[in-house]
Amino acid sequence: MKNVSLPDLRYVGFEKEKLTLHLFLQVVGKIRLKLSPRKNHWWYITHYLNPQGFTTGAIPYNNGFSSFSIDFNFIKHQLEIATSEGDFELIKLKNDLSVSSFYAEVFAILKTLKIDVNIVDKPFDLGMDDRFSDISEIHQYDKSYAEKLWKTLLWTDGVFKEFSGRFYGKTCPVHLYWHSMDLAVTRFSGKKAPKMPAEARLSDKDAYTHECISFGFWPGDDKVQEPAFYSYTFPNPEGLEQQELQPKSASWEMNNGSPMAILTYANLKEEENPRKALLDFMESAYHAGAELAGWPIEDLKVPDLDKL
Q: Where in the chain does DSSP place strands (E)?
């Protein structure tokens, strides 16, 4: 395992490159949100990893008689829109392709394909008031950064799926949220969580209807300025931040008043066996929250096949 080489993914120095791709993802994600049938906990708005990059999966249109997908291909560096009618269109992803131009080209293609959709033309939860159609100053698509992010997420996707398979309870797919650009997988105890305050965001009200322990990876932002893995328990049980985490480089950090388990990507890369270290991190964070919250851990545990 010493020969495993994870990409050299960083946030500092690549802020605009990350933001450009993040905004592209939000434009496409909002299209899926608008046209896809509702599913619990916002599971119908996400992107997924595939062998070329990110995909929306099939999105229905034409009253459900047809479907289309929008894929980010980071091998050919192009956005691909394909329909069940045999249509295929693409947009070349390159430096100097602004968010406003990307937005205009995507919707021009959809109009040509007779896919009728309108979205809220504004970034979500990024502290930006300008509309996608007016953001011309952000245009730093970088092929190398996109490839490194995709390959990091592709590897992480596999580890998350292995971890997901160890749990009998309700679990979301491993998917990429365009909201905060994090790859996530969440486990649920089956119990309802306390009702969110009336002033809470709609997105949070639906996401946190039930007790959960979530795990994820995000490529960094202005608050956590490096790629990192995380886990949190909702509702937060008392004493969570005092529980032991693995590997030793993992730690509890306060996030909006609640403890969040953090393992930085840089620290993971230093581990002799990164896959095992990430699985150990997720297991230790899960047990820390599940034990304190009184989850039926043994009942929800999937045994090894040789133990069946």
A: 48-49, 53-55, 59-61, 66-73, 78-83, 88-92, 175-177, 182-192, 210-218, 228-234, 251-255, 258-264
DSSP at 220: -
DSSP string of 229-270?
A: EEEEEESPPTTGGGS--SSTT-EEEEETTEEEEEEEHHHHHT
253-281 exposure pattern, b = at least 16 Cβ within 10 A, e = fewer? eeeeeebbbbbbbebbbebeebbebbbbb
Distance CA 300, CA 82 (A): 40
Q: Tell me the pLDDT of the chain (308 aa) as tens digits.
A: 445 689 999 999 999 999 999 999 999 999 999 999 999 999 999 999 999 999 999 999 999 999 999 999 999 999 999 999 999 999 999 999 999 999 999 999 999 999 999 999 999 999 999 999 999 999 999 999 999 999 999 999 999 999 999 999 999 999 999 999 999 999 999 999 999 999 999 999 999 999 999 999 999 998 899 999 999 999 999 999 999 999 999 999 998 889 999 999 999 999 999 999 999 999 999 999 999 999 999 999 999 866 66
